[in-house]
TrEMBL record:
Organism of this sequence: Tepidimonas taiwanensis
Ranges for domain DNA mismatch repair protein S5: 219-337
Name of this chain's protein: DNA mismatch repair protein MutL
UniProt keyword annotations, A-Z: DNA damage, DNA repair
GO molecular function: ATP binding; ATP hydrolysis activity; ATP-dependent DNA damage sensor activity; mismatched DNA binding
Part of the full-length chain shown: 10 to 358 of 688
Length: 349
């Protein structure tokens, strides 16, 4: 419509509001996988199984053994801005869960066929229920305690988006990468990924090992055994800020940034401050376009970081970004300068 033809101001229909929100959160199947695995982890899952068909476009089903959702709350879970994770501003500012916006399920339901199947772990009767988000129909079902979220025909309602998707193989690779990001931070949780009926990845939970060993095993499984064997452990604190993890020796640097994982309070982030700080630490030892490999965990007072900056929460804002930059740079510099130690890697948790 021409900008000159003024039309009356009207609130947008609910459906369209959700579709606009979905545009921010869901770029491709991997974005859905990330949101659903976030939810499974928030529910306390110990085992998470992701089943994909057709690169995740035909079907994404994420199954967990977490706390479940009571029957009465299933319809609420798919409403916009409905969440069990925060209740007020004070809780938002101290948030520790992956989710808090109460938007993901509603957004996904507006651009795909969504069904929830859940059995609360503490339900004495042990009943499971299935909710079809489109029809609102609730039916008895069967499953062990936990939740399965099924997402079918992603972007069927928004064909323009669907056109941007790549081949099944590419979308699958992005989905695996989304799960890998979670898996590196949670060696205590088992992950399995199926595609078109085949098991394509499996990272077993390491519960019987001490946390450092468990984490080394998980990095070796989910990323690279050589990185664990030859990497350098980082563990430094600056006041309440702790930086720990594993960095690659300069000679292990790569031409790609595919071995760069940074987490803030367990949340995977792509953060300029952290990236730049690591880069600065390597400045004298890494030349040209070579990229350092690292898996780094920042533990920080939740009040000192704002995670509510970006709908996908992949960006964060630090209250004192200078202090964070300095802490990360010093931690990595100290690790690179230390005589090479045999035991690599500090526990992330
Ligand atoms: P958010 O995660 O920001 O709260 P979502 O739309 O992702 O918003 O989920 C809405 C609510 O549904 C959550 O707050 C949670 O109570 C419930 N929920 C979603 N997925 C699961 C799950 N896998 N297990 C248990 N509860 C879940
Ligand atoms: Mg969520």
């Amino acid at each position: 419509t021409a900008p000159s033809a003024r039309r009356p101001i009207r609130p947008l229909p609910d459906e369209l509001i959700s579709q606009i929100a979905a545009g921010e959160v869901v770029e491709r199947p991997a974005s859905v996988v990330r949101e659903l695995v976030d939810n499974a982890l928030d529910a306390g899952a110990r085992q998470i199984t992701v089943r994909l068909v057709g690169g995740g476009v035909r079907l994404i089903a994420v199954e967990d053994d977490g706390c479940g959702i009571p029957r009465d709350e299933l319809p609420v879970a798919v409403q916009r801005h409905a969440t069990s994770k925060i209740r007020d501003l004070a809780e938002l500012e101290a948030v520790q869960t992956m989710g808090f916006r109460g938007e993901a399920l509603a957004a996904i339901a507006s651009i795909a066929e969504l069904a929830l199947l859940s059995r609360p772990a503490d339900d004495p009767a042990g009943h499971a229920w299935r909710l079809d988000a489109r029809t609102g129909e609730l039916q008895p079902a069967a499953r062990p305690p936990g939740t399965t979220v099924e997402v079918r025909e992603l972007f069927y309602a928004t064909p323009a988006r669907r056109k941007f998707l790549k081949s099944d193989a590419t979308e699958l690779a992005h989905c695996i990468e989304a799960v890998r990001r979670h898996a590196l931070a949670r060696p205590d949780v088992g992950f399995a990924i199926w595609h078109d009926g085949r098991l394509v990845q499996q990272w077993r939970a390491c519960t019987d090992l001490d946390p450092t060993l468990a984490w080394q095993r998980r990095i070796a499984d989910a990323l690279d055994g050589d990185f664990v064997a030859a990497g350098i452990a980082v563990d430094a604190s600056a006041g309440p800020l702790r930086v720990h993890g594993l960095v690659g020796r300069p000679d292990m640097a790569r031409s790609r940034t595919d071995r760069q994982f940074a987490y803030v309070n367990g949340r995977y982030v792509r953060d300029k401050v952290v990236t730049h700080a690591v880069r600065s630490a390597y400045e004298d030892v890494l030349h040209g376009q070579r990229q350092p490999a690292y898996v780094l965990f920042l533990t920080i007072d939740p009040h000192a970081v704002d995670v509510n900056v970006h709908p996908t929460k992949i960006e964060v804002r630090f209250r004192d970004s200078g202090a964070v930059h300095q802490a990360v740079q010093r931690a990595v510099e100290a690790a690179l300068a230390a005589p090479r130690s045999a035991a690599a890697g500090a526990a992330p948790l």
